[in-house]
Design goal:
single chain, about 325 residues, alpha/beta, Spore Coat Polysaccharide Biosynthesis Protein SpsA, Chain A, UDP N-Acetylglucosamine Acyltransferase, domain 1, 2 domains, five-stranded parallel β-sheet, 8 helices, 25 strands, about 30% strand, elongated
Amino acid sequence: MEMSAIILAAGKGTRMKSDHPKCAHIIIDKPMIEYVVDSLKELKVQNIIAVVGYGKERIMELLGDKVEYAVQEEQLGTAHAVKMARPLLEGKEGITIIAIGDMPFIKKETFYSMVLNHIQERADVTVLTVDHPQPYGYGRILRDDNGQVLRIIEERDCTKDQTAITEINSSVYTVNNKILFSLLDKVKNKNVQKEYYLTDIIDIACKQNLRVKAYKTTDYKELSGINNKLQLMDMEMEYQKKIIEKHLLSGVSIHNPETVVIGKDVVLESGVEIFANTEIMGESHISKNSVLGPNTHILDSTVGENAHIFFSYIENANIPNEESIGPYKVIKGN
């Protein structure tokens, strides 16, 4: 089945208090939207469209040709943003995943499970949900007595009883592409903000007797978005901790790990030893038994076996086996 994806990345993110668009903010060594792109590419999604708006040039510069682009010139809501992809998607077969660019740590496996559930349930629309221990601020999933999804209720519209619902809308959907834009055309902007909300497609689809399902995942942290610099810092620290734990369990030694930074795509072979104040970023590959640091920066480089690099800066370089570099060396390749 052909899979397409739309990533919503047009917002400014006012609470970030930055001139850059929210989705362009860096987590470790890449913009947050690129983590979403990576997960979708790992899922073998054929068409990925980023809907950009405020600061679009910055996001286009960062992502390059990894995605196609649609532009939302006016910020008229999430449903309006998805409609901007119409020229690139309308009429295609298969399904479309709608994701958001400020949810960087949603895993490939979560996208896969949602899509698989969508297919198995023969659904027309599937919304990704999770039980959240602190659901305040999120839209709630309203179900009938049989567990069937009825609609999504925004926090401000909830009754007292509905605020007690812990199942929240993640703002991630799977929709049969043939009906996506007909649903969007029926979304109205009859609300205080005069915006077109993507959540309304659930209610519209239910009223049309389409098959609407919710796929509930288990990790609410994975589905947490980023709205300000404090949340950005917290999520970066948590993600970095997971990366370091993964390498420690694979046989890498890391001293003073709170001072070490390792990018998502870095490959470290067993026996590598890393000392304090060392950063290994980009698509670097460090071969077994090499020693890095202290006070070393390595970017997009390959380091051979049993090499030793300390107090040095290495970028786009290929360091041979057994090489010793430092202190105070700068090596930049082409």
